[in-house]
Amino acid sequence: MADASLQGKLIEFKGASLAVMTAYVRETDAVRLADALHMMLGGMPDFFAGEPAILDFSQLGNSPDRVDWTAVLSLLRRYQLQPVGVRNLDEHLLEGARRAGLAVLGAESFSAERPVAAAQPRTPPPAPAPAPAPTLAPAPVEAAPQAPAAAPSDNGLAPTLVVDRPLRSGQQVYAKGGDLVLLAGMSPGSEIIADGSIHCYGPLRGRALAGARGDTSARIFSTNFGPELVSIAGVYRTFERGIPQTVAGRGAQVRLTGSDNLHTLEITPLQYD
Description:
By secondary structure, the protein is α/β, with parallel strands linked by helices.
């Protein structure tokens, strides 16, 4: 029998602060979103590890007549992102969001949120349009052999992941929460992803995605530049028409330039002098 002193206290409400990331959604078509997320995240099904998120539609272009919330939410949850609410959504779409179980928030809600890469990558002009990516997540691939990661530092920062063997086609490495150092290079068809920066001291020939969780200060460094795709914080570039001659097979760095609302990728030769 329950203690009488607990009657009326079976549930208790207290204020709390919650760090919630924001996903700026620029497209509501689930198929196109699937292509964009696959391009950004490489089909990693547990990328967000159950983190809550607010879907912000302030940067949505043409507002659709309706949103297939079931498809959109299912897609995001495939990557273990847990949407809890929406904001800056047009009035005629709010009821559908509520029926999907999402809270409708004001523009100032969760003002201290942690940013995350936008749901649709932005391609800087005049980069060529990327080839369509498959909408289905790829089959699991063999994990690349990895050197032991450094022990966590005293300051609480995530350790740098060091990989000392070359990556073969189909292999993928993800440095969660920190930088990635690749000592022996990578083959076409392989993929490296880091929440921080990427340092490749061998041939860079596959896909390299830095700042995967929205860190716009991340960079990609390579001593032998020749990737299929590079991306920083969701801003990506492909090279179907070839690598620029100024950096092809040479040392190069990739970084973001511009304002918060309009980032572009800059690829420049490394200066060794």
